[in-house]
Design a protein that fits this description.
The structure is a single chain. The chain is an alpha/beta fold. Helix content is about 40%, strand content about 15%. It has a domain of about 210 residues: Type I PLP-dependent aspartate aminotransferase-like (Major domain) (Aspartate Aminotransferase, domain 2). β6, α9 and β7 form a beta-alpha-beta unit. The chain starts with 7 loop residues before the first helix and ends with a helix.
Length: about 375
């Protein structure tokens, strides 16, 4: 952060502001500071419904947010320039291989706008992260969404079969909402087959949960995106960096490919506070690894909980699990909410599977009391 910018809050008030923010943001908002909720309907809730990081941003990111308050009245050019350099360095990619968005969801929406047309459909899955399908639907553009396979993984063969004539193929790996993973070799093979079957298609690989994966057969597809102009990879700061409320994501690809997306992006779509926080978070050694370890502990504990209760838990490589509760999800969800625990919405056609995000270990232990009561 350049020292010649307005720096009153950074040098005098940043520490104080950050110390005030820390319990609020890392403790899920104003509940931690005041004992109440800024939203009455969330009072007392254990929030396990949206795949958020319960620990929030790192202390360094919170200090950066406070430090950038003085620039909130200015456009974000300088801080986004710093962010671009930091992300490029962390990934080992050229700066022109990056395109930033207001969350990775904005970039998925833009990919539909840039690459899908009335005569070039999108290929996605059912269920998977919904932005591709929802944006295509809103624009009245065609899409095909093969159902996930019997292991609730992307049915790659079916997606390849659906790809001739496509303009965009979306592979979310690990997949949301199922949490399932394909090894890199399988994704590379499917990508090659899609590119062959659909000469005009772009393959968009969503790695939102990349940092949580501990499967030795998995690695990023960013090197392929740098080598192949028809592949792009999406990442986000919402998960491992705990910045879902700040809205920041990016895609990696060849510059000429990203130029096709750029006209659809709103100017200054990354705000000052998000960019400053993300840059600071990337500079914290071991932060992602620490967050992944805490998540793994909670995920393994929660998996044992449901397994011991006699329910099937889909193997997950993310910060959530899918549990076959053998009953309709809406009723289970409402029963949990009535007892102060929020769990994920239904994801048809998986009508008996509840998606449960990982909270802190203490939150999961408190939620377990509710789960046992309802599923008894």
């Amino acid at each position: 952060m350049a020292m010649n910018r307005r720096s009153f809050l950074r040098t005098v008030g940043a520490a104080g502001v950050a110390s005030g923010l820390l319990p609020m943001v890392r403790g899920r908002g104003l509940e931690a500071a005041t004992g109440g909720s800024p939203l009455p309907w969330l009072a007392g809730d254990i929030r396990l419904d949206s795949n958020e990081n319960p620990y929030g941003p790192s202390p360094e990111a919170l200090k950066a947010i406070a430090g950038w308050y003085g620039e909130a009245g200015r456009y974000p050019d300088f801080v986004v320039r710093d962010l671009r350099a930091a992300v490029a360095k962390s990934l080992g990619v050229p700066e022109d291989a990056l395109l930033f968005g207001c969350g990775s969801g904005e970039l998925l929406k833009i990919a539909v706008e840039a690459f899908v047309a009335p005569d070039r459909h999108a290929v996605t899955a059912s269920p998977t992260f919904e932005t591709i399908q929802s944006r295509a639907t809103s624009l009245r553009l065609p899409f095909k969404a093969p159902r996930v396979d019997g292991s609730l993984r992307l049915d790659l063969d079916a997606m390849v079969a659906a790809s001739p004539g496509a303009g965009l193929a979306f592979l979310c790996n690990p997949n949301n909402p199922t949490g399932t993973l394909h090894p890199t070799a399988a994704i590379e093979d499917a990508t090659a087959r899609i590119l062959k079957a659909a000469p005009e298609a772009i393959v968009l690989i969503d790695e939102a949960y990349f940092e949580y994966v501990d499967d030795p057969g998995y690695r990023t597809m960013i090197p392929l995106a740098l080598a192949e102009p028809r592949v792009i990879v999406a990442r986000t700061f919402s998960k491992i960096h705990g910045m879902a409320g700040l809205r920041l994501g990016y895609v990696v690809g060849q510059a000429k490919t990203l130029e096709r997306m750029r006209p659809h992006i709103a100017p200054n779509n990354v705000n000052v506070l998000a960019a400053g926080a993300a840059t600071a978070s990337l500079g914290v050694a071991g932060h992602a690894e620490s967050e992944a370890r805490k998540n793994l502990g909670a995920r393994e504990w929660t998996t044992r909980l449901f397994t011991d209760l006699g329910y099937t838990v889909v193997p997950s490589q993310t910060n959530f699990v899918m549990v076959d509760i053998r009953r309709p999800v809406p009723a289970f969800r409402e029963a949990c909410r009535a007892r102060g625990v929020a769990v994920g919405r239904p994801f048809p056609p998986l009508d008996s599977y509840a998606r449960i995000s990982m909270g802190t270990m203490e939150e999961m232990q408190r939620a377990a009391v509710v789960f046992r009561e309802i599923l008894a």
